[in-house]
Specification:
about 300 residues; alpha+beta; Rubrerythrin, domain 2; 5-stranded antiparallel sheet; 7 helices
């Protein structure tokens, strides 16, 4: 006959034997305070044993992990949509399409046309607009593949995404250009971990306002825009003030702008020529109409 196990209901002492002891050796409780804890057990686990505790803990860990995984997957789509909306809003913000409270005033899908160009500046027809937007999640990878996202605004301006390295981590942004593909219409910068009050100032409107009207070409030569320590020269077309106390971040922004925008030079040149030709054609048509009206 298998040995029975009895538990003292007073102190929890476990006794093994055919019957409960006359007195608990720990708390001196009488036999009447003992209860049989494994009578009729048929191969089941003892809930007080180590095996049961380990199994129970393992099952709970697996269940919690599975629940967290399911929750994460169910929220991932929504999280990606939120990030995507932030990127679309940043593109509109770089164009200045915001109100006094910082809310965008244009509908991205109605105002922006997205496409990609190759290293020669030619449009890549095989890449759909949705795929172009997806490139923003791995812009470095897209650049490595020599596929460059372009966001064309309905008013003739363009937005170019840029990415680089600050002092501590990644920095990125969007540069809006006028139809001449030379004049900066606006910028939006952001960062992952630059120092608050120092390098993080690149994300402030005060810093970003400096870029409006700056030029990225000197004649036919691409020169970009550079952040100057100690302050940009008065009237300088290619310089803005660097961040005070944020030299490394400022250098990172300068390097980011030059490296990323340089990839688009063939596209800039082709687009600028096309814009100039369209402007000349419109001027000729207007002159002809004026002549006809005068006659």
């Amino acid at each position: 006959m298998a040995t029975k196990r009895f538990r003292c209901k007073v102190c929890g002492y476990i006794h093994e034997g055919d019957a409960a002891p006359e007195k608990c050796p720990v708390c001196q409780a009488p036999a009447s305070e003992f209860e049989l804890i494994d009578e009729g057990k048929k191969g089941g686990l003892d809930k007080n044993g180590n095996a049961y505790i380990i199994l129970y803990s393992t099952v709970m860990v697996v269940l919690v992990a599975a629940l967290l995984a399911v929750t994460s997957l169910s929220l991932q789509k929504r999280q990606n949509e939120n990030v995507l909306n932030e990127k679309k809003n940043a593109i509109l913000q770089s164009l200045g399409e915001v109100d006094a409270d910082g809310n965008v005033t244009k509908n991205y899908d109605e105002f922006i046309t997205a496409y990609a160009v190759d290293e020669n500046g030619a449009k890549i027809d095989s890449i759909a607009p949705d795929q172009v937007v997806d490139m923003l999640f791995d812009l470095k990878g897209a650049i490595a593949d020599k596929t460059y996202p372009v966001f064309s605004a309905a008013d003739g301006r363009y937005v170019i995404p840029v990415t680089g390295q600050g002092l501590w981590d990644a920095i990125w942004g969007y540069v809006a250009l006028e139809a001449d593909m030379n004049t900066v219409s606006g910028v939006v910068f952001d960062h992952k971990g630059e120092t608050p009050g120092l390098g993080a100032e690149i994300a402030t409107p005060k810093h970003q306002e400096q870029y409006k009207g700056k030029k990225i070409f000197e004649g036919k030569d691409f020169v970009s825009v550079k952040l100057i320590k100690g302050g940009a020269a008065k009237g300088a077309a290619h310089e803005v003030d660097a961040i005070s106390g944020g030299t490394k971040t400022s250098d990172g922004v300068s390097a980011m702008l030059y490296a990323c925008l340089k990839n688009y030079v063939p596209f800039f040149e082709a687009a600028a020529a096309e814009s100039a030709a369209a402007t000349e054609e419109e001027s000729e048509v207007s002159n002809e109409q004026n002549v006809e009206n005068n006659e």
